[in-house]
């Protein structure tokens, strides 16, 4: 599986420099578009995590920006330029609950007791755009494909629950990832 985007630096609309209309409680919430190509033909569900390993020296842990689980591949649009590639559109995080209600989004690091957010699900259980406070950071988008949904997950799951489910209950048949940069 190959994961790609039309950029190597997260565009302003999806990150720290996002306009006010693309923010909730000061946090950028419009998710960026990306492509998933060459998925194993057995795969029926997608799951992903978008994280910031460069946040570890800043806050003491890898910041979770977005997690998705149990997204049926059949519910996605194919890229018009490549009938084998799946296209994840911009703002998918906010649109997904209405478009594909059976798919799940997990909590991001804004839900952490150490961050002090008010618990607004539009911020804590959706995409949070990169906002590196110290320097440019490299971000990782990792996507897994499975033949079945990961059982036992609910809206607002934690990333570790997804990871345990992928290891112990539903083995991925394919996976891939990409790195992008977020500007300070």
Automatic annotation (TrEMBL):
Tell me the superkingdom of the source: Bacteria
Which Pfam families does the UniProt record give? PBP
UniProt-listed InterPro entries: PEBP, PEBP-like_sf, YbhB_YbcL/LppC-like
Similarity remark: Belongs to the UPF0098 family.
Family annotation (NCBIfam families): YbhB/YbcL family Raf kinase inhibitor-like protein
Q: What's this protein's name?
A: Raf-like protein
Naturally occurring in which organism (per UniProt) = Bifidobacterium panos
